[in-house]
């Protein structure tokens, strides 16, 4: 046991060094080889030694479009003194879909440290959760594990008529896996509306329950309670006992996906401006259109306010308060069909929920499986995002990561932060670790040498991936003067040229 | 001692005056440039920084390629997405000057760390060059008269609508830079002729080369300069200056122009260029004879020489004629013929006649495009006669030729505009010179009483003045006209001067107002985006073109082939980035006729044509819903005519008219019309939009039949918000090998059977 703790600790330290914060672990790959070895080595130990047992597991699945929010509450009882590392297991499919993971004790808001343990040869992915206080034998705790799954639903049937309803299908494993025995377990699946078309009923459940294996009330399906489940994070259970369940439900909004997001944030000290520009490739992941698009029907549906739920007609985007000069265009130029309601910026330090509302309409209604790419950008006062630390003489700027399109997963994101020319001592602190980051040189207007630019790449960003990338840097006074000097030199050169050409006699013969 | 109407300060040193004059000139030119550029920005302010119309979209696309991939890729560009399945060798079939100019500007700016978007360079190129045009017009007019006339001419050309119509921001076409090149080449020619300078001749040749690389209208220069030279020779004004200027221009200019792949050997093989060659030969002969004459004094020898000169001239001319007969020299092209015979194009080349800018000019458009200048223009030309130096002859010739061409083709209004501005500036400047000059005429004793009796009559005054010291060609000319050359001429008093000056000023103000109004209202619409004003005065943007093109771009496979009438080919390639069958580069008449035939045939005839050309989508423009008159139904007769030109047995224009010879789309439309693919696509499900009410086509103002057309072989794929753009997908062959019409009928029949019984069953239960 001591050895296990030691190893876990090592892992812990290793990843601490790499990542400042604790939230996304799913897309971690850098230390994977090492972790994999360690995981292979240590996992039998984990599943073999029952330091905990689960008195109850309740899993709540909130069905959605692009995102499915899963909240699993583990009522945990320690079997030994000093148990502080609890292991959570996700099935293979679940692991693949999970893009955001977070654990905390019930009723508290401080997130616990979650560590991915690598692939378990037993067909489950293990994560360790470090409890804040080691538990004594027989004491219990309630651990809440929140995950967000992306690409977990798909349209079913895959095609829908232009005015037709949109049904999505969600599939999941019936049993929550755990390396510890579980006394009772239940899964609640909540659909956005009571209209659940179909759901699967697991068979041969006599070993776990005497009642109906699944009950439906309103928009909620309840699988369970199932009793006396052995430690099931192993291959035998996954192979023989585990079952797939599926739900087909009506989803009343378009399922949006941002296939690619390029955000460029340019900091300008001379303009006291922070410009943020997003290039967004939007895709409607709803059912494909059956037949062809008919404008006539669309106009009729529009008139009667009965546009199919899968059709994206307009989007309300929340921009930060105090933005100026918002622009919205695509490859063919300006898109004139949009409206903006601005709010003034909020003084620093004050919390406020105000935002600038940008109502945008794509050029055409985006039906199922159609694409629409566009560019949206705005300026805002640098003072709203930046601070100056007099002691160290460095600036601190926060650039938001969060994707603009509500309810849409971002498949890949590239965030580029362009600092002022001549910035030195550049440090950046992303709210969650990036897949890749790099520093490059970006040359733009009136630059002599170019500006340092930080590029961060992310994958599968969810609605929970909101936060600021904090960048600190120093700009020496001489760097500030570079631009006016360059412009002045160029203009002086021109004048000198004009002066010379006017006064120097170039004639060969007089 | 002549009296002065008003006193001028005399104690200013000459140097100060010169300096102030030069400063004022620079400031005025800068202001004129600013006015020229800013008045062209209406299009950007009212709409956005967008490429306008049709051809500019191709130029923009080519420039983007040039900027992205470099000059060699552009030079060797074969575009497989145009003229599908033939493709187009773009590098060898365009005038690359415009794109090269933008490419150079783009690269220079990027080298200076100014990463300007290539689109903005393209949009703002025409306004930028209009400032240069103003400057070159200033230089040109300066040679004719003086700086003040030059400034006036620059101001005129800067804001005159006739030029603005082709050079607003976003109008990224060859004409954008060509007018500057035209004026500057002419300036260099005049200067070379005046000085006998090989340097300016070479400069003229270089700018001529630039012009050849930039615009097909270079033929105008190619014929204007020889015409001028020939006229001078015929007037007995041959000089070594003319010889040097013309020879250096022709030799270098022709060799240079042959470097443009699209021109190639045309300068020695086509009739359009023969005049220049002929005059070149003539000049050599004359120069030679002059040389010989200066050395030989024998009269007999001279006679012999004259005979041989004439013989050589005749021989050369007949040689050219012979070569033309033999086919070594191509005869004039159809486009050229249509300039002489305005009915020619309509008979033989309907494609050229179908373009609206090739129509003869309507009278009001002269006033609309030139305003007061059109009245000042003849005055200026007449004044050129009074001096009649070599450059004045040039302006007179230019005016005559350009006036004719502008009358034949709306498009050539553009070449007339510069000379109108120059002549008008000369006239107006003479007028101002005469009336601003403070010198009063010296009166003879007897006449003073008479003049004092009618001091308010300026017309009479003019007759009785002495020639003013430094200006007065106007007065002189007027005097010559009236025959009173011996009487003193001039203007008395300040008030007389003020009356005329005030009127002139008022005219100029009206000119400016008119130019601004025309520019903002008539010439600044991008035509890709339409603007309308709602009942509440709110501007409403109709953006159907970009909507539909963007839909194509985003939601169809990249190798999709789109068929449309050729007008929209460049736009589809530029905005939707899809393959087209035909486009605005109308080089293959048969291909266009094929599209015309598909559009004007019934569905079952059109379908095999569509399938054979791999057409996936058919795009048409339909304005019937919102009253957009430039739609395909209105262009339809041209499609029919062009198709008829190739397939006279299958397509006949009269079949598309009603029995009474009307072009209708309602109940009374002919069967051929109603069955044509174009008609069906335009009105497919149109009457359903009116919800049982009578459907009305707002362009034609006709009521549509109750039963709309039925489509079997193609299906509606996308229609834009205001129904302007309608896109149809061509259906694939039926899987069971049936005719699609039969398959459709079968499917609909089955559907009816299937849907009815359940209702009955429910009723029973």
From TrEMBL, chain A:
Domain of life: Eukaryota
GO biological process, one term: protein N-linked glycosylation via asparagine
Keyword annotations from UniProtKB, A to Z: Endoplasmic reticulum, Membrane, Signal, Transmembrane, Transmembrane helix
Membrane topology qualifier: Single-pass type I membrane protein
InterPro entries for the chain: Ribophorin_I
Family, as annotated: Belongs to the OST1 family.
Assembly and oligomerization: Component of the oligosaccharyltransferase (OST) complex.
Protein name, per record: Dolichyl-diphosphooligosaccharide--protein glycosyltransferase subunit 1
Organism of origin: Phanerochaete carnosa (strain HHB-10118-sp) (White-rot fungus)
Automatic annotation (TrEMBL), chain B:
Protein's cellular compartments: Endoplasmic reticulum membrane
All copies of domain Oligosaccharyl transferase STT3 N-terminal, residue ranges: 24-424
GO annotation terms (biological process): post-translational protein modification; protein N-linked glycosylation via asparagine
Domain STT3/PglB/AglB core: 559-610
Keywords: Endoplasmic reticulum, Glycoprotein, Glycosyltransferase, Magnesium, Manganese, Membrane, Metal-binding, Transferase, Transmembrane, Transmembrane helix
Enzymatic reactions: a di-trans,poly-cis-dolichyl diphosphooligosaccharide + L-asparaginyl-[protein] = N(4)-(oligosaccharide-(1->4)-N-acetyl-beta-D-glucosaminyl-(1->4)-N-acetyl-beta-D-glucosaminyl)-L-asparaginyl-[protein] + a di-trans,poly-cis-dolichyl diphosphate + H(+)
Region ranges (Disordered): 443-471
Pathway where it operates: Protein modification; protein glycosylation
Segments traversing the membrane: 23-45, 89-109, 121-141, 147-164, 176-192, 198-221, 242-262, 274-292, 304-325, 366-385, 392-410, 498-519
Cofactor(s) listed: Mg(2+); Mn(2+)
EC number: 2.4.99.18
Keyword check for Membrane: yes
Gene Ontology molecular function, alphabetical: dolichyl-diphosphooligosaccharide-protein glycotransferase activity; metal ion binding
InterPro entries: Oligo_trans_STT3, STT3-PglB_core, STT3_N
Cellular compartments per GO CC: oligosaccharyltransferase complex
Record bears the keyword Glycosyltransferase: yes
Membrane topology according to the record: Multi-pass membrane protein
Top-rank taxon, per record: Eukaryota
Family assignment from sequence similarity: Belongs to the STT3 family.
Role according to the record: Catalytic subunit of the oligosaccharyl transferase (OST) complex that catalyzes the initial transfer of a defined glycan (Glc(3)Man(9)GlcNAc(2) in eukaryotes) from the lipid carrier dolichol-pyrophosphate to an asparagine residue within an Asn-X-Ser/Thr consensus motif in nascent polypeptide chains, the first step in protein N-glycosylation. N-glycosylation occurs cotranslationally and the complex associates with the Sec61 complex at the channel-forming translocon complex that mediates protein translocation across the endoplasmic reticulum (ER).
Descriptive protein name: Dolichyl-diphosphooligosaccharide--protein glycosyltransferase subunit STT3
Annotated source species: Phanerochaete carnosa (strain HHB-10118-sp) (White-rot fungus)
Lineage of producing organism: Eukaryota, Fungi, Dikarya, Basidiomycota, Agaricomycotina
């Amino acid at each position: 046991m001591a050895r296990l703790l030691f190893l876990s600790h090592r892992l812990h330290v290793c990843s601490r060094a790499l990542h400042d914060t604790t939230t996304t672990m799913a897309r971690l790959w850098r230390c994977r080889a090492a972790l994999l070895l360690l995981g292979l080595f240590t996992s039998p130990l984990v599943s073999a030694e029952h330091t905990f047992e689960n008195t109850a597991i309740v899993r709540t699945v909130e069905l959605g479009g692009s995102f499915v929010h899963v909240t699993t509450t583990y009522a945990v009882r320690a079997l030994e003194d000093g148990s502080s590392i609890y292991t959570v297991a996700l099935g293979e499919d679940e692991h693949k879909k999970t893009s955001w993971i977070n654990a905390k004790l019930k009723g508290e808001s401080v997130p616990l440290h979650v560590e991915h343990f690598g692939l378990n040869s037993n067909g489950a992915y293990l994560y360790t959760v470090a409890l804040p206080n080691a538990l004594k034998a027989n004491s219990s705790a309630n651990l809440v594990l929140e995950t967000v799954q992306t690409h977990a639903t798909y349209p079913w049937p895959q095609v829908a008529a232009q005015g037709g309803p949109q049904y999505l299908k969600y599939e999941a494993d019936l049993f929550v896996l755990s390396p510890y025995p579980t006394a009772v377990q239940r899964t609640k699946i909540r659909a956005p509306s009571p209209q659940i078309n179909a759901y699967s009923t697991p068979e041969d459940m006599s070993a776990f329950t005497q009642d109906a294996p699944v009950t439906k009330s309103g928009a909620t399906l309840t699988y369970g309670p199932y009793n006396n489940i052995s430690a099931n994070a192993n291959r035998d259970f996954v192979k023989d006992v585990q079952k797939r369940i599926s739900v087909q439900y009506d989803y009343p909004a378009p399922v949006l996906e941002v296939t690619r997001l390029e955000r460029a944030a340019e900091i300008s000290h001379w303009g006291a401006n922070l410009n943020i520009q997003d290039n967004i490739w939007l895709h409607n992941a709803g059912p494909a259109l059956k037949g062809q698009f008919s404008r006539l029907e669309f106009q009729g549906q529009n008139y009667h306010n009965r546009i199919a739920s899968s059709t994206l007609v307009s989007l309300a985007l929340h921009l930060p308060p105090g933005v100026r000069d918002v622009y919205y265009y695509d490859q063919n130029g300006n898109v004139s069909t949009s409206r903006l309601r601005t709010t003034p910026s909020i003084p620093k330090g004050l919390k406020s929920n105000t935002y600038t509302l940008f109502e945008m309409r794509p050029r055409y209604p985006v039906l199922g499986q159609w694409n629409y790419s566009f560019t949206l950008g705005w300026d805002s006062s640098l003072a709203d995002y930046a601070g100056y630390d007099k002691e160290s003489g460095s600036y601190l700027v926060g650039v938001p990561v969060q994707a603009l399109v509500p309810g849409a997963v971002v498949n890949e994101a590239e965030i580029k932060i362009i600092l002022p020319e001549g910035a030195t001592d550049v440090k950046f602190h992303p709210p969650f670790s990036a897949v890749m980051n790099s520093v490059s040189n970006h040359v733009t207007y009136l630059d002599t040498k170019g500006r340092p630019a930080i590029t961060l790449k992310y994958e599968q960003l969810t609605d929970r991936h909101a936060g600021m990338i904090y960048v600190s840097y120093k700009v020496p006074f001489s760097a500030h003067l570079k631009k006016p000097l360059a412009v002045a030199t160029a203009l002086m050169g021109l004048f000198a040229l004009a002066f010379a050409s006017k006064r120097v006699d170039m004639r060969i013969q007089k | 001692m002549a009296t002065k109407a008003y006193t001028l300060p005399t104690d200013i040193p000459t140097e100060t005056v010169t300096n102030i004059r030069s400063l004022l000139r620079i400031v005025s030119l800068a202001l004129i440039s600013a006015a020229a550029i800013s008045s062209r920005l209406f299009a950007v302010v009212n709409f956005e920084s967008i490429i306008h119309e049709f051809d500019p979209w191709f130029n923009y696309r080519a420039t983007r390629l040039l900027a992205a991939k470099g000059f060699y890729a552009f030079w060797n560009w074969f575009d497989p997405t145009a003229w599908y399945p033939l493709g187009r060798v773009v590098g060898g079939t365009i005038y690359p000057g415009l794109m090269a100019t933008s490419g150079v500007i783009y690269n220079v700016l990027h080298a200076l760390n100014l990463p300007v978007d290539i689109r903005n360079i393209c949009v703002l190129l025409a306004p930028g060059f209009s400032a240069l045009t103003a400057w070159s017009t200033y230089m040109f007019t300066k040679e004719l008269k003086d700086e003040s006339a030059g400034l006036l001419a620059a101001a005129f050309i800067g804001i005159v609508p006739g030029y603005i119509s082709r050079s607003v921001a976003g109008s990224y076409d060859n004409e954008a830079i060509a007018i500057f090149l035209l004026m500057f080449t002419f300036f260099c020619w005049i200067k070379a002729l005046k000085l006998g300078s090989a340097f300016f001749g070479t400069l003229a040749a270089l700018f001529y080369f630039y012009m050849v690389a930039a615009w097909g209208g270079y033929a105008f220069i190619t014929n204007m300069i020889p015409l001028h030279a020939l006229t001078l020779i015929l007037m007995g004004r041959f000089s070594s200056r003319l010889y040097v200027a013309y020879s250096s221009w022709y030799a270098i200019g022709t060799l240079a122009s042959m470097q443009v792949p699209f021109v190639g050997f045309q300068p020695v093989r086509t009739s359009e260029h023969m005049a220049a060659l002929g005059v070149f030969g003539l000049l050599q002969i004359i120069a030679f004879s002059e040389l010989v004459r200066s050395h030989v004094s024998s009269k007999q020898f001279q006679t012999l020489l004259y005979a041989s000169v004439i013989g050589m001239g005749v021989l050369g001319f007949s040689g050219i004629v012979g070569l033309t007969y033999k086919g070594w020299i191509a005869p004039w092209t159809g486009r050229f013929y249509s300039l002489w015979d305005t009915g020619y194009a309509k008979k033989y080349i309907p494609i050229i006649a179908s373009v609206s800018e090739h129509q003869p000019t309507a009278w009001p458009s002269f006033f609309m495009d030139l305003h007061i200048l059109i009245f000042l223009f003849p005055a200026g030309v007449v004044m050129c006669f009074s001096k009649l130096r070599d450059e004045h002859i040039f302006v007179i010739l230019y005016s005559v030729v350009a006036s004719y061409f502008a009358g034949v083709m709306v498009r050539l209004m553009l070449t007339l505009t510069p000379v109108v501005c120059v002549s008008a500036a000369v006239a107006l400047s003479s007028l101002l010179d005469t009336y601003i000059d403070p010198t009063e005429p010296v009166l003879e004793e007897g006449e003073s009483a008479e003049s004092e009796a009618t001091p308010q009559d300026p017309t009479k005054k003019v007759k009785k003045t002495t020639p003013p010291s430094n200006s007065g060609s106007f007065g002189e000319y007027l005097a010559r006209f009236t025959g009173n050359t011996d009487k003193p001429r001039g203007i008395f008093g300040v008030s007389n001067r003020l009356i005329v000056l005030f009127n002139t000023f008022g005219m100029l103000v009206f000119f400016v107002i008119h130019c601004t109004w025309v520019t903002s209202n008539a010439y600044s619409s991008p035509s890709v985006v339409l603007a309308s004003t709602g009942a509440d005065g709110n501007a409403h943007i109709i953006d159907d073109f970009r909507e539909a093109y963007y839909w194509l771009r985003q939601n169809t496979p990249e190798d999709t082939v789109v068929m449309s009438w050729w007008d929209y080919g460049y736009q589809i390639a530029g905005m939707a980035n899809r393959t087209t069958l035909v486009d605005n580069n109308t080089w293959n008449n048969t291909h266009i006729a094929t599209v015309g035939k598909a559009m004007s045939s019934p569905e079952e005839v059109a379908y095999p044509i569509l399938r054979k050309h791999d057409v996936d989508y058919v795009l048409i423009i339909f304005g019937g819903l919102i009253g957009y008159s430039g739609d395909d139904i209105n262009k339809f007769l041209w499609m029919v005519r062009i198709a008829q030109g190739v397939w006279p047995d299958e397509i006949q224009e009269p079949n598309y008219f009603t029995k009474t010879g009307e072009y209708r789309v309602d109940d009374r439309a002919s069967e051929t019309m109603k069955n044509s693919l174009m008609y069906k696509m335009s009105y497919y499900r149109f009457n359903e939009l009116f919800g049982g009410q009578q459907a009305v086509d707002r362009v034609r103002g006709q009521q549509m039949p109750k039963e709309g057309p039925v489509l079997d072989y193609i299906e509606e794929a996308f229609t834009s918000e205001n129904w302007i753009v309608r896109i149809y997908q061509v259906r694939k062959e039926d899987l069971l090998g049936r005719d699609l019409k039969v398959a459709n009928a079968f499917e609909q029949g089955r559907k009816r059977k299937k849907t009815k019984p359940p209702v009955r069953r429910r009723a029973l239960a």
